[in-house]
Amino acid sequence: MSEPCERRKQLRNLNSKAWGGELLVVDSPDTSLKSNMAVLKRLSSAITTETQNTLIDLIKRVSLEKYLDELIPATADGLLSLKKKDATAAVEVLSVLHQRFSSRFTSKLALYFFRSVEDFREPEHLPVLGTLLRLYCEMYLVDLIRLDDSVDKSMLPRYLVKSDRPLLLAYVSQLLSQHANNTRLLPIVSGFVKKFEDELLRENEFLGPSERLSLVKLLTKYSEHVCKMTENMHEQISGLVNQVNEISRKTGKVPESLESELKEKKDEFAKLEAYSEFAHEVFSTRKPSLAQEAEPTAKITAISGLSESNRWESEEQRKFYEEVADISEMVDPSLLLKRGPDIEEKGAHKDVFPTFVKQLDAATTAEEVDGKAREFWQQEMYNKSAESRLYRHAFSQGINAKAFARFLCINRNVFKSLIQKIESKADAILKDQLTMSHIDYNTVRLYCEMANFSLVPGTKFLHMLRFLVVNVGEGVGLDLLTLFFDYSRFTILYRPEYSEDVNNLIHLLQSVTSRLQGDRQKAAQAFLSSLAVAQEKVQVETAKPKLQFLEYMLKRALQNQVFFPALLEFEWDHESYTTIVDFFSHPETIAYDEIPALVSLLKYLGEHDPVLITVVVDGLIEEFQSGFELNDFRQNRKRMAVASYLAQLAVKRLITPPLFRNLVKYAIFESAHGDPSNWFWAKMVCLFFELSKKDMPLELMLFDYHLLLQGELPLDLHLRVVKCFESRGATRAHNVAEAAKRISEMSKASRQMPESEQEDDEELEQETDDLSESEEATEDTGDSETDNDSEEDDDTESELDESMINKQLDMSIQSEFDSMLAASLKTSGSTNPRARVHQPLGTAVRKDQTENGANKFTLLTKSGNKIAARKIEVPDHVDFVAEQLTNAELWERERVRIKDYVLNQHE
């Protein structure tokens, strides 16, 4: 017999005698507080092999009788920090304590071990449980774990109350069942088996034959469970690898979330496979059946005559999605009648639902899902919070969307509101994904699986597909569309009622793809080539080598002007010319820093073909105006690129100064039609002023006026506006009236300025432009003609500016007049009424003369913050008319007075 077994036998004999009453007697024990507290402190800190002899010596000399209540907590604290190598030393120390105090100490310590499985339930507690398991077994073998009459049965955990199993078997069984699916338990179990292999697999005097056989059966059953987990994990990894390869092939990248998930599953699989090999050698269990990964099948580009018969890949898949019974046919209908929002939660134990959803996520076949659906109702898990918990689980990480969707389909007539709620939230999440860089793969999979079970209305599903096709060039639109076809390919392509709409979507996708640029177009073309369309082959247009080389040369020309002359050597046929126009019409496809080079290249080519500049500028201005009409925040980057492009064109004098000033004023005036909280127009105008070197005082004052009308600016925009004004030597007005006065004065001054001074200003501006142009490699010709055209355009522009400014001033003055009028009416309503001759009817009466000489009055009435107008015609011989004519004249004089006051209050 080995030395450890001999020592274990000796301790077992001594401990058994202590249970019988033969205790260790200490002569003249030390009862001082200092000595007793020193022992408790050493026990609570740690028990090690080095301190073993010192602790045993102290326990044999110190009394500890008065400190038994503190002895158990101190020992428990020390055992929590115990290391595996010190387990033998701990058994020696605990045996000495047992031999001194018997059941007064050991029974309470055993209760601590019994409850440890329940107290340490979380996965992060498994390392502690592993150490306690080894120590528990060591103590059990030396007879330190025993239940005698001194133990209060009410203090025992549930798994021991009605169990006649041996204490070691019960403890190990509870630990394995509590964490059966956690891979962190694998090294603990394998280490336990290796440590006590002789006691478990061979006959010995410490464990009886039946107890030893039960332990081996328990560990064998657990090993078989691990074997199944290994096979399931291998299938999950294979599916995930195929998914990653498919996405990588179509998009050219691997999502970070999928990559990390794949790595995590491979690490878990390595642990499972290693334990399965170990269990096969020790317990002779079967090895996991790991099928070799099948080679990915090539995607066909066309199928002639798709039909319902070849919709599914296998008969098993068809049954899973099509043969779905209703829950009323699977369980007793009386169970369904018990459901309702007001029922009390007196069903199963509170831990049943988490276990249920874990088992539902682990289901892989239709039979397993159907069984969980029956269990849900038979165990009466439907209570007031069941639907809320199912709703939260639908959007949790790691959900088995396929099984969960079939579960919802089985309960489709019971969970109608829940299904609609899940579908609505998933729809909103998917639409929000386009503006984000991260894809919620669980939500995408759940939405598609619900569509496979017809839980999503067909019109809404097709609308979502159309939404993704239209936005395939935005954000992650192509990735989402690819995932939809991966998860619901057979539903989209083979469902008869979808065939016509899907074919239209494919044609729409071809059209959208042709307008994309660069890598996005290539990825979309690769996706198109993988689709199978009924009775029609998808024709993917690829650029000709000549056009591809032309695109390459255009991009290189942005980096080096040496390539400029080479572009003139191309034969500018229709296709080449269209490619060049598209290149110059999409500044959003290049970096902002390359826009000046793009303008220089356009100017160079425009010298040989002036029509090119006209075509490009017309398209840019149309894009600029349509951006304000649509006002889509997703197009803001493109709109800002177009604005920067136009400003750079103005700097190079490829667009005239009057046209550029009109663009600035267009952006300013559009502020009145948009959302006041959207300051994008202001950022665009700031960009114009920052890039342009031209003096535009009138536009600057208009900008200031409209900023004051809109209200307080955000801090970042305020700093940018202040910097913009300071760079032009101007200051902002303090209020709207001052800004309006500045505009009026500037407009009058421009009309009164002699023509000679205007010409001098134009010459000065022209000299400034010529000075900036002298730094370029090439110079423009025909400056005098441009100046003459500019002068003529400026004359026309001044007339347009004056009419637009007067219109804007009249609108703002009328707005202020109406607000002051409403305030005065509110005040006058609370005071005593005036004489009848001056009392207005309603809010105000304004007189107009009709064509036939009759008197027509406009009655203004105030309802809340709104003022309504109504026309009233009254004969001129009525006394009422005489009174109201007087009121109308007084009212007109008051209006003129308020108007003069607004314009002159700061003079």
TrEMBL record:
GO BP terms, alphabetized: nuclear-transcribed mRNA catabolic process, nonsense-mediated decay
GO cellular component term, pick one: cytoplasm
Compartments, as annotated in UniProt: Cytoplasm
Matches recorded under Pfam families: Upf2 (PF04050)
Transmembrane segments: none
Disordered, as annotated region: 736-802
Compositional bias annotation for Acidic residues: 756-802
Domain Up-frameshift suppressor 2 C-terminal as annotated: residue spans: 785-904
Gene3D superfamilies per record: 1.25.40.180
Keywords: Cytoplasm
Matches recorded under PANTHER family: NONSENSE-MEDIATED MRNA DECAY PROTEIN 2 UP-FRAMESHIFT SUPPRESSOR 2, REGULATOR OF NONSENSE TRANSCRIPTS 2
Protein name as catalogued: Up-frameshift suppressor 2 C-terminal domain-containing protein
Organism, scientific name: Ogataea haglerorum
